[in-house]
Design brief:
Pfam families: Aminotran_3
Protein name: Aminotransferase class III
Shape: globular
Strand content: 15-25%
Low-confidence stretches: none
Mean pLDDT: 95
Number of helices: 14
Order of helices and strands: EEEHHHEHEHHEHEHEEEHHHEEHEEHEH
Number of strands: 15
Largest sheet: 7 strands, mixed
GO molecular function, one term: transaminase activity
Strand order of the largest sheet: 4-10-9-8-7-5-6
Helix content: 25-40%
Bound molecules: pyridoxal-5'-phosphate
Family: Belongs to the class-III pyridoxal-phosphate-dependent aminotransferase family.
Structural class: alpha/beta
Keywords: Aminotransferase, Pyridoxal phosphate, Transferase
């Protein structure tokens, strides 16, 4: 096993995947696992969806690749139109890449180029402000704007650090305040940082609408994103929403920013975009950004070989067609209500679940040693692993992130099943989770 394939972790006992079917993945021994986190909130339509497979196969038989420097294809146009149709405001311009990190890198470069096109080569606007407790990808550029120290520490000498403000995290407020008396100091922190650096040097601010992999689906107060929008407008700074995880219907709206009627300047998205059927990501940009390039140099100084490749485009077009025809986003909102209510009930009955939070089908919970004081379990107990393993024994895959490793507090988990989940399957997921949590509780509490 893994004789040639270099694993991510030499300490993990990997499950041996054999095949998938709907919400389930089967291992080689024939054991069935409910994919309670869609991989990493990717497999939004579940596994082996016949419509998507047929569409990808059809494209494969027609044209597998045409280099984007020379060729435009109908399938890439169709995919871009389908994505743009779901995006808010005048976010009408799609640029496809191969994944989330590339999407964020693309957004950062577009933000810089926009100001050079608009204000000339002497434009000082180049800094991107990010947030602590965030994840934007694994590449050098995305790590520079993200704030998950565990993932960055070793690589710090390799990149140019960007300034950070605290993230929203009401359960463990950075300012030791309570909402709403806090007056959203976390949003005002952006304005403070802009004033410290000087808006003339800042091109953009980037944030995840709901913090995903570093903190287990942390939802901000409703006023937060409208306040970010207003601050960015006032200082002439582009607002980038990293919707790699939250986009494409995951939170029960097309994009998570739709919950607050905010139109960012750029959305970076991936995961659910092709729902795991092809490696895909992309940005969606507002018209004035693209107009500036069109009327300026005429070319976006960026590109990858697989930009808008026909195979990924076929998957994206089919995924968006399927979502529309089967009202998948509406289902996510409806099933999300049920899932959230069930998770909150499990949380209330558990001695170790400190908080349950989420939107649509992106839910998270945090386990702690003491619910009253919110004290986390000792690191050596590896609570994130204990809970995950207990759920796996029950035939349920969940997404752990140890807050003690990422530096955010307790051990966090995400529950994000495929958006096509049905009511009986929500019930099944909750039953398996409850059994897993109880088993873990007996082991560590
Ligand atoms: N941004 C966010 C919010 C993510 O959750 C992720 C991946 O988990 C990324 C960016 C990076 O995406 P990828 O792993 O496809 O490069």
């Amino acid at each position: 096993m893994h004789q040639y394939l270099f694993p991510r972790s030499f300490k993990t006992n990997y499950l041996e995947a054999d095949y998938g079917d709907g919400l389930y993945i089967y291992d080689k021994a024939g054991k069935k696992y409910l994919d309670g986190c869609s991989g990493a909130l990717i497999s939004n339509l579940g596994h082996r969806n016949k419509d998507i497979i047929a569409a990808v196969e059809k494209q494969f038989a027609k044209l597998e690749f045409a280099h984007p420097s020379r060729w435009r294809t109908d399938i890439a146009e169709e995919a871009a139109a389908a994505v743009a149709e779901t995006a808010p405001g005048d976010l009408d311009n799609v640029w496809f890449v191969s994944g989330g990190s590339e999407a964020v890198e693309t957004a950062l470069k577009l933000a810089r180029q926009y100001y050079v096109e608009r204000d000339g080569e002497g434009s000082g606007k180049h800094v991107t402000i990010g947030r602590w407790n965030s994840y934007h990808g694994s590449t050098i550029g995305t790590m520079a704007v993200a704030g998950s120290m565990a993932r960055r520490r070793m690589f710090l000498p390799l990149f140019k650090e960007s300034p950070k403000i605290p993230s929203t995290y009401c359960y463990r407020c950075h300012f030791c305040k309570r909402y709403p008396q806090c007056g959203l100091l976390c949003a005002h922190a952006l304005e403070e940082m802009i004033q410290i650096i000087g808006p003339q040097y800042i091109s953009s601010f980037i944030a995840e609408p709901i913090v995903g992999s570093t903190a287990g689906a942390v939802v901000p107060p409703d006023e937060y994103w409208p306040m970010l929008r207003e601050i960015c407008d006032r200082y002439d700074i582009l607002l980038i929403a990293d919707e790699v995880m939250t986009g494409c219907g995951r939170t029960g709206k097309n994009f998570c920013v739709d919950h607050w009627n905010v139109v960012p300047d750029i959305i970076a998205t991936a995961k659910g975009m092709a729902a795991g059927y092809m490696p895909t990501g992309g940005i969606i940009a507002r018209n004035h950004l693209i107009e500036a390039i069109k009327n300026g140099s005429g070319a976006f100084m960026h590109g990858h070989t697989y930009n808008g490749n026909p195979m990924s485009a076929a998957a994206v077009a089919a995924v968006f067609r399927y979502m529309k025809e089967h009202k998948v986003v509406e289902n996510a909102a409806k099933m999300g209500e049920l899932l959230g209510a069930g998770l909150k009930k499990i949380g209330e009955g558990s001695a170790i679940i400190g908080e349950v939070r989420g939107k649509g089908l992106m839910w998270g919970f945090e386990v702690v040693k003491d619910k009253a004081s919110k004290e986390p379990f000792e690191k050596k107990l590896a609570a994130a692993n204990v809970v995950t393993r207990a759920c796996i024994e029950e035939g349920l895959i969940i997404y752990p992130s140890s807050g003690q490793i990422t530096g955010t507090g307790g051990d966090n988990f995400m529950i994000g099943p495929p958006l096509v989940i049905t009511e009986p399957q929500v019930k099944e997921l909750l039953e398996k989770l409850k059994a897993g949590i109880e088993k873990a509780e007996n082991a560590i509490a």
